[in-house]
Amino acid sequence: MRKSHPVRRAVLAGAATVSGIVLLLSLKPASDPGSAQAAGGQLPPAAAGQAPQGGVNGAVTGDAAQTQYGPVQVRVTMSNGKITKAEAVRTPKGGRSDQITADAVPRLNQAAVAAQSADIDAVSGATYTSAGYKKSLQSALDKAKAAAGAAQGGGAGAPATVTGDVAQTEYGPVQVRITVAGGKITKAEAVQAPKGGRSDQITSASVPRLNQAAVATGNAQIDSVSGATYTSAGYKESLQSALDQAPAQGGSSQAAGSGGGGGEQAGTRTLTGSVAQTQYGPVQVRVTVTGGRITKAEAVQAPKGGRSDQITSASVPRLNQAAVATGNAQIDSVSGATYTSAGYKESLQSALDQAGG
């Protein structure tokens, strides 16, 4: 056999060594999380699966979304800006609806926590319930976003988007969403408005004018549009609800709604609860909270007409007093006003959820 030349063997050995080093380097990760932590560094929050800091904490109840089979209303519990729990506090009831609700709602709750948004899939066979759930969930998240903006010091001019409660009118629901920055309304839009037939024409003519008026005046004291009385009234009601929820930014009282004068006291917020539908009509409660305590409670909606007028006038003042006295929604029902009392407490709890109480 012919022996290999010593120089050739040296060249081959060197080439093999270089190839081995290159192979090892190609297998080494570009960055080593373990070594970064050992050096005292931290992984980015997204990589560590952590919640964004500075978010709202507590329960927030979305607006009730009206569906073909009944209202759907969602409450979320937030921890450091993340949804830790979602629950439907109102759902369609009776007959087939009970079975659909029992099957769909737990899946929607799980999806909300998993997605951390209202961008979730509808449950097959529960189209209307799913749509109402997502709408109410988005409303709750809008409120949480506004609350987080207030907690982080909205006075710096950070914009907050707030959705008002749905206002029911003779021709359909009206719901307003506003963007507030630096204590001023910078954008207003109707996310719901009467539809169908003549309503389409009235809505298309009146809503843009109402939007412009809301931005121009900075509050809900805007003129009704001629020929759109009901739409205008519903728009203003929902707009006021949104303003009640909006963070007070930069010390401005412009976005505080109709409460003029010298502005709110430090630590004072006015919050309007969701509308609670009762057998005799809607009930909606507005509270003023100062230093974490209810200083004023009032029913901005209550059952009307016939016997309801007498019941409302006798029960609502007592419920208002009880809300201030107890500081929560755990108040006694007024005898003879069972439905009004139940609706009052439901709406009051919704307002307190927004306040973080």
Task: Characterise the protein shown here.
The longest helix is centred in the middle third of the chain and has 25 residues, at 127-151. Helices cover 43% and strands 22% of the residues. A hairpin with a 2-residue loop joins strand 3 and strand 4. The chain has helices at 6-27, 33-38, 45-48, 96-115, 127-151, 198-217, 229-245, 307-326, 338-355, and strands at residues 58-61, 65-67, 70-79, 82-90, 160-163, 167-169, 172-181, 184-192, 268-272, 276-278, 281-290, 293-301. The chain is globular. The strands form three sheets. Strands 1, 2, 3 and 4 form a four-stranded antiparallel β-sheet that branches. Strands 5, 6, 7 and 8 form a four-stranded antiparallel β-sheet that branches. With 357 residues, the chain is an alpha+beta fold.
Give the tags:
alpha+beta, 357 residues, four-stranded antiparallel beta sheet, 43% helix, globular, 12 strands
Concise structural overview:
The chain is built from 9 helices and 12 strands.
Q: Which percent range fits the helix content?
A: 40-55%
Radius of gyration equals: 28 Å
Broad structural category: alpha+beta
Mean pLDDT: 78
Q: SSE string, helix = H, strand = E?
A: HHHEEEEHHEEEEHHEEEEHH
Distance between the termini: 93 Å
Number of strands: 12
The largest β sheet comes out as: 4 strands, antiparallel
Spatial shape: globular
Q: What's the number of helices?
A: 9
In the predicted model, the low-confidence regions spanning at least 5 consecutive residues are 22-54, 249-266
